[in-house]
Design brief:
The protein is α/β, with parallel strands linked by helices. It is about 40% helix and about 15% strand. The protein contains 10 helices and 9 strands.
């Protein structure tokens, strides 16, 4: 029965290439891990956000690699380890054995991904039989303020609820990542893909949460307004190599032709469509 459920989950995907299979395996692993965390009560104190949240619960048309979580309240001594058994048991129920390991950060101040800070806990889950298939979990133990959450339903491997950031605050986090992510010379084109998705779906950006994230990153409250935010985004796209953006996104989407229109001018004009939500 357990293998049937796992195969049922894989069977939802159209798999024509090895890359298709890897993407499908990653996503099924992500959903099983979410199920284990739910069983262990993790979402009583944490919420799901980032690109994978957008993919799983809002049908973002690209695959995403990591599971990003934020505690609801700051807890510097938090550890995910008490939840390991529940995650491992959930995979065992699917007929799969996994290994979970904590990743040690090399530099305390390094920002490697969307919101990775020196107080972010990082873990890898990998199949025991195939260590190359793995997913990464990040938990922000000292979250910025001013974000809202909502319960979202998954029906496989069973029906359960996941506490998620609301769409405006997911958007705020993505734009914070786009503007403040430190990738040296690497370009995270997936940020621009997601930006386009939010604009096309008429999602407003949660301004208060964006400002709080920027303040936490910068160490001081930035001079910020909706106009300044749009100016920062336009400068960012002018300084960004569109070809590198496309190259980063290509492995995670089915139809690369959707990027044919992508250009500096295209994204600059998209910014004009940006709606910003300011709470009273």
């Amino acid at each position: 029965m357990s293998n049937t459920i796992f195969d049922q989950m894989i069977g939802r995907y159209v798999i024509k290439t090895s890359e298709d299979r890897i993407n499908a395996m990653h996503e099924v692993m992500q959903e099983i891990a979410l199920a284990g965390l739910y069983r262990a009560g993790f979402f009583n104190k944490a919420a799901f956000y980032g690109g994978t949240c957008l993919r799983i619960f809002h049908s973002l048309p690209r695959f995403s690699e990591d599971l990003d979580f934020s505690l609801i309240q700051s807890e510097p001594d938090f550890s995910l380890e008490p939840y390991f058994d529940a995650i491992i048991d959930e995979f065992l129920a699917m007929g799969r054995k996994v290994v979970i390991s904590k990743k040690e950060q090399k530099k305390p101040s390094a920002i490697e991904s969307a919101f990775l800070k020196d107080d972010t806990e990082i873990y890898n889950i990998r199949f025991q039989s195939n260590p190359t298939i793995k997913i990464k979990i990040e938990v922000d133990t000292q979250p910025p303020k001013e974000f809202s959450t909502e319960p979202k339903l998954l029906v496989l491997p069973f029906s359960f609820m996941v506490r998620c950031f609301t769409l405006p605050d997911l958007f705020a986090g993505k734009m914070h990542a786009l503007l403040y992510r430190s990738w040296k010379k690497r370009v995270k084109g997936r940020d621009w893909f997601d930006f386009e998705w939010y604009i096309r779906h008429n999602i407003p950006l949660g301004f208060e949460h964006f400002v709080n994230r920027a303040q936490q990153t910068q160490g001081h409250k930035p001079s910020m307004s909706p106009t300044i935010l749009k100016e920062l985004l336009k400068k960012k796209i002018i300084d960004t190599d569109i070809n590198l953006v496309k190259n980063d996104v290509r492995p995670f989407i089915k139809d690369p032709s959707i990027m044919d229109i992508w250009s500096t001018d295209y994204f600059s004009q998209l910014i004009d469509f940006l709606k910003i939500q300011i709470n009273p």
